[in-house]
Every structure is written in C-alpha cells, then in structure tokens.
Please model this.
Amino acid sequence: MSTVTCHTEGCDNNGVPLQLDLTVYDPDTGQPAGTTSTVICGPCGQPITDIQDGAAS
Amino acid sequence: MPTGRIQVAPGQTIVSAGWGNPLWDHSVQAFASAADRDNQFPAPQPGAMSFTEDTKTLWVFVSGAWVPVPTGMRIVWGSVAVPIATANTAASAAVTFPAGSFTAAPFIVAGISTGPPAAGSAFAWPSAGTASGFTMNAMRSNTSTQTCWYIAIGA
Model:
C-alpha cells in the first residue's frame, strides 16, 4: 500500500494523503507483476509524484 | 453515559463549566484527522459526532468506537489516460477518487474509450481498488495512450 498526495493548487485533493494499492497483476496468471509507474489525480487529472511507501518507480 | 438534555430555567445564567463542555460534546466538531480528534476528544459520550477533514468523514460514537456515518450510495466516474508502450502488453495507471468519496473499496467497472485497431483488440480492466482509488489496466494490439473510462459505486 502506498500513500499518494496531489499538490495541485485548487484541486479538492490538494494536500490530502490517500492510500492506494499500486500493485498490477499479470492478465494471464492473475498474479502480482510489480507496481504501476503512473499515478493520476482523479479530480484534477494531474500526475501525482508525491508517492510514499512502496512507491512506484 | 449520555448526558441527555440539560434543562435551563428561565433567566438562569449559562456558565461555561456547566454548559460549555456539554454543548461542545453534543455538537459536531471538526478535526484534522482521526488522531487529532482522539487526542482532543478522548472521552466522547455515546451518540457523539465528529467530522474529520482529511477523509471528509462524518462519525458517530457507538459502543465505544467511532463509526463512519453511512452516507448512502456514492458514484464516482471519470476517465484516465493509460500510456501503452508495448503492443499486446498490459499497461496501467493508478487513479485517485475525490477524497472522502468512499469508506471502503467501491465496485468498479471500466472500459476503453475507443475501439480496437483493425483486426486488433483493445480492452481495459480495473484492479487493486481501495476507498481512495484504484489501478486502471489496459492492453491494445498497437501502441498508443489509451483513454479508459470508469464508474465506481460504493458507500
């Protein structure tokens, strides 16, 4: 589990730490296959780069 | 123990010791987080309510614990761009919901916003959801940045 935080001015999620599971799964086996390298803020659509713990690469 | 209704006689002076704390305890106070609330409001009475700003959650104190107040069904929808760097290989992007949308991981349906290339395929599927967001996966038989839609339904 990772904590991601949007820092876009004016975004409703600005400064709010959110818990995300960045695990991705192999579509053939259903097994974990690493973590995603892209995190997007849903409300503002901007990339999130503040990723803590189990951070995406 | 619930303190119940505190009665006041006509003309009675309302002083802070007898009224301030009960009024505070019986109203909905806002706190930065659950930890902040537990620190400032360590002994709530049954039925006490609070609001935590970080998760936008309304709580009620029941049976010795703070429980989120059910807010009914919530629906969040949107789209997210998933860059597909390699044809026929799954790509992904995590996306967050507006803070406080859900108290538990919602049910998520998702799809791809444009059709597959000629004689090819394209599809999207959600995974690894939490109350705060989920991971969108997409695969396509050619490379592109694929817009994927989603609808999250929960409480």
Chain A touches chain B at residues 1, 4, 6, 12-13, 16-27, 33, 36, 38-43, 48, 56 (CB under 8 Å). The first strand of chain A starts at residue 2 and ends at 5. Chain A has no helices and six strands. The CA atoms of residues 39 and 48 of chain A lie 5 Å apart.
